[in-house]
Amino acid sequence: MTVQLIPIKGIGEVTKGDDLASVILESMAAGGLSLQDRDVVVVTHKIVSKAEGAVVTGVESESEYRQIVEGQAVSVLRRRGDLMIAETRHGFVCANAGVDRSNAAPGTVVLLPEDPDRSAHKLRNRLENTTGKSIGVVITDTFGRAWRRGVVDFAIGVSGVPSIVDYRGLEDMQGRVMEVTEVGIADEIAAAADLVMGKADGIPVSIVRGLDLKAPPGRGSDLVRPPEEDLFR
Amino acid sequence: MTVQLIPIKGIGEVTKGDDLASVILESMAAGGLSLQDRDVVVVTHKIVSKAEGAVVTGVESESEYRQIVEGQAVSVLRRRGDLMIAETRHGFVCANAGVDRSNAAPGTVVLLPEDPDRSAHKLRNRLENTTGKSIGVVITDTFGRAWRRGVVDFAIGVSGVPSIVDYRGLEDMQGRVMEVTEVGIADEIAAAADLVMGKADGIPVSIVRGLDLKAPPGRGSDLVRPPEEDLFR
């Protein structure tokens, strides 16, 4: 079983009200590509937020930007200089509460989608209805990590794909019960997709094709560790 | 540019002194595969540790296991019941200081390789010398994360591949300087590869083919955030 990571090129600027499913399918068609059953469509949240109008314009100063960031944070875990690690209302822990200025027009900042799982579900429905195929959708954002240098992409919205694969009770090759119990599979899909998206190239969509996922579908919110379980708040 | 994730099947039990390069190349040949220039060979650390003899046998009780774990930890970040989140001497922060019992014979525990970057470098040299191709190697381990449920694979040893891609000073599609500065690319490669490896299937090697990596090669240790920079120790 070989898995393919396929970048979707030619997706232009997305603005409020755009139908992302059409945008994606038209760009794919222009590149001679079409969706297949069990494809996972991975989309950076930025174009989802833009299509949903989750942007703030007219942000001229650093202090206006900081104010928006503070407004998006429900709790602040750490501050160092201008860097703020905050929890969003979705439960994501990330720099600047997910408020982003890169790949946006000057004066525009992009917020997280209001409900990334709902966004993923809507996009999946549109893609499935248009193509007749069984599709998964993962919406991603780029977060830093505790203890590790460098950011990577994570799954913030999921539909039609497992988010966590539970190995509890399964046996390993030696017949021993597995110690690794739950794998954050949608985060691995998000990280994999980023390998063909590239921060500077501005490729906001890719297809992960050929995955053999037997676990039931999950939600992006399943990947948020509840604060009461979390040793690092 | 499509990237392929190719599992290498048929790799049997590895024991001390085995030549991993030969084991990998023979399994690939048996499956009709051969290495190509710029392939990245991703290997779970478990077979590297076994080949290097980084195992402890005769571990009969939970308390003996706990003692080994304590011995592998240079500092303990958190404890909850039997769970210990500790820093290894390599600087990795993970559960049970990287000491692992699954996919090992009863009574045997597997430690981390002494120097995963050196292990990656040696394996890469052997693969390159045997095949004449330019190869990258990433050695992985499976870690939990702060704030997120589920474990994912991370890069602990790297050779011939960038570990971090630095976008500092680059401009985005709108000519704005990128906010995302450093991407943990080798961690994304590790996570991607895990999509075809599968914890329960016991596939310890895969190939990531078709990556277009322009950054200079790095080391796994580059991904360790120095404690003085880290907000979450």
Low-confidence stretches of chain A: none
Overall morphology of chain A: globular
CATH domain class of the largest domain in chain A: Alpha Beta
For the record, the CATH architecture of the largest domain in chain A stands as 2-Layer Sandwich
- Class derived from helix and strand content of chain A: alpha+beta
List keywords for this structure.
homodimer, 233 residues, alpha+beta, CofE-like fold, 5 helices, globular
Please give the structural blueprint:
The structure is a homodimer of 233-residue chains.
Chain A lengths: L2 E5 L12 H11 L9 E5 H8 L2 E2 L5 H11 E8 L2 E6 L4 E3 L13 E2 L5 H16 L4 E8 L8 E8 L5 E2 L15 E2 L1 H10 L10 E5 L24
Parallel strand pairs in A: 2-8
Antiparallel strand pairs in A: 1-12, 2-12, 3-7, 4-5, 5-6, 8-9, 10-11
Helix pairs in contact in A: 1-4
What does this structure look like?
Two copies of one chain form a homodimer. Chain A is an alpha+beta fold. Chain A has two domains: 4-49 and 113-223, CofE-like (60s Ribosomal Protein L30, Chain: A, 2-Layer Sandwich); 55-112, CofE-like fold. Chain A has five helices and twelve strands. Chain A has helices at 20-30, 45-52, 62-72, 116-131, 185-194, and strands at residues 3-7, 40-44, 55-56, 73-80, 83-88, 93-95, 109-110, 136-143, 152-159, 165-166, 182-183, 205-209. Chain A has a five-stranded mixed β-sheet with strand order 1-12-2-8-9, sandwiched between helices. Chain A has a three-stranded antiparallel β-sheet with strand order 4-5-6. Chain A has a two-stranded antiparallel ribbon with strand order 3-7. The longest helix of chain A is centred in the middle third of the chain and has 16 residues, at 116-131. Chain A starts with a strand and ends in a 24-residue tail after the last strand. The mean pLDDT of chain A is 92. At the A-B interface, β1, β4, β9, β11 and α5 of A face β1, β4, β9, β11 and α5 of B.
